[in-house]
């Protein structure tokens, strides 16, 4: 495989955004977090959603097909080419969580 593609969704001002990230090899969680934070921070500014200028990843989750549920991503080995991930920011008391609105990802036959 020449590049690794990861799809990452996040809530930006109450709207789910999904961005495709390309890496030359499997990134570390720190590398993924840095790229995701930059991209979603830019989305927040461009959407003028009133979201604070700082997008800070608290955790990632991935949909596990075999279990039919979302699971926390805690290690680099859980990052797989073409998978859908969800980035969560730290909970803020004044903001409601929209994470319950996540649906099972659609699968395409490749």
Describe this structure in words.
There is one protein chain. 17% of the residues lie in helices and 34% in strands. It is globular, with a radius of gyration of 14 Å. The protein has 110 residues and is an alpha+beta fold. The longest helix has 19 residues, at 29-47. A five-stranded mixed β-sheet has the order 2-1-5-3-4.
Cα(first) to Cα(last) distance is 15 Å
Q: Give me the count of strands.
A: 5
Estimated share of beta-strand residues: 25-35%
Shape: globular
Q: What is the CA-atom radius of gyration, in angstroms?
A: 14 Å
Structural class category = alpha+beta
Helix content: 10-25%
Strand order of the largest sheet: 2-1-5-3-4
Number of helices: 1
Main sheet summary: 5 strands, mixed
Low-confidence stretches: 93-99
- Average pLDDT confidence is 83
Order of helical and strand elements: EEHEEE
How are the SSEs ordered, and which strands pair?
Blueprint: E1 4-12, E2 15-23, H1 29-47, E3 57-64, E4 69-73, E5 84-89
Defining key terms:
5-stranded mixed sheet; 110 residues; 5 strands; 17% helix; alpha+beta; 1 helix
Describe the structure concisely:
The protein contains one helix and five strands; from the N terminus they run ββαβββ. The chain has 110 residues and is of the alpha+beta class. The protein is globular.
